[in-house]
């Protein structure tokens, strides 16, 4: 069999699997839902699932509804006999709920990706630690300089003493600020990584 023939057979098999699944479930699904639920069992690819669903919708074997940028698929209800108005309304409500959930998840994912990108672009913990060490050395140098001035035989003007003292205070204050920033960023980064890992690990079980 030629490569094109094998590809067509694989596409037809994928469409048959999806059609059977949607008819058995008889409820609305997004392409992501179908992919997440069948990928492990049948080894289907995301692109193949999307194309097969669009093909089935074009053939009239399943129905497709678009909510914003989200497409929802469900089986043709004519195949299940007469459907009451309340059942159709229930399906519409379920589709709306699923669409809202998908949009919320997408927004959360974008927010987390933005936070992760911001964290990656900020100063790393080793870099912050090094800068704190440098500030500590500067602080110690100014302390030593101040002590030498205090113990010097030659008198030092009050202005020079005040200048050195203020510089010492500035560096010590900056060191303490950087130290707090390192701890805060480390804890925030650790927490965001945990939340993002839990979200990505459980996303496929949503719905």
From TrEMBL:
InterPro entries: Hop2_WH_dom, WH-like_DNA-bd_sf, WH_DNA-bd_sf. Gene3D superfamilies: Winged helix-like DNA-binding domain superfamily/Winged helix DNA-binding domain. It is found in: Nucleus. The keyword Zinc does not apply. GO terms for molecular function: double-stranded DNA binding; recombinase activator activity. GO terms for cellular component: condensed nuclear chromosome; DNA recombinase auxiliary factor complex. Keywords: Coiled coil, DNA recombination, Meiosis, Nucleus. Residues 88-152 form a coiled coil. One of its GO terms (biological process) is homologous chromosome pairing at meiosis. Residues 15-74 form the Homologous-pairing protein 2 winged helix domain. Transmembrane segments: none annotated. Belongs to the HOP2 family. PANTHER family: HOMOLOGOUS-PAIRING PROTEIN 2 HOMOLOG, TBP-1 INTERACTING PROTEIN. This is Homologous-pairing protein 2 homolog. It comes from Pseudonaja textilis.
């Amino acid at each position: 069999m030629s490569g094109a023939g094998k590809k067509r057979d694989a596409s037809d098999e994928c469409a048959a699997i999806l059609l059977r699944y949607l008819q058995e479930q008889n409820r609305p699904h997004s392409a992501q839902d179908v992919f997440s639920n069948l990928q492990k069992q049948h080894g289907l690819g995301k692109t193949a699932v999307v194309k097969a669903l669009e093909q089935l919708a074009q053939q009239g074997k399943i129905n497709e509804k678009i909510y914003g940028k989200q497409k929802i698929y469900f089986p043709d209800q004519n195949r299940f006999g007469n459907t009451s108005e309340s059942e159709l309304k229930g399906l519409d409500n379920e589709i709306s709920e699923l669409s809202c959930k998908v949009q919320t998840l997408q927004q959360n994912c974008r927010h987390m990706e933005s936070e992760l990108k911001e964290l990656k672009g900020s100063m790393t913990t080793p870099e912050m630690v090094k800068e704190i060490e440098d500030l500590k050395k500067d602080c110690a140098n100014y302390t030593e300089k101040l002590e030498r001035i205090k113990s010097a035989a030659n008198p030092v003007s009050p202005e020079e003493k005040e200048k050195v003292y203020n510089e010492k205070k500035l560096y010590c204050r900056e060191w303490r600020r950087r130290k707090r920033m390192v701890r805060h960023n480390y804890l925030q980064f650790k927490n965001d990584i945990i939340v993002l890992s839990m979200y990505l690990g459980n996303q496929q079980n949503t719905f």
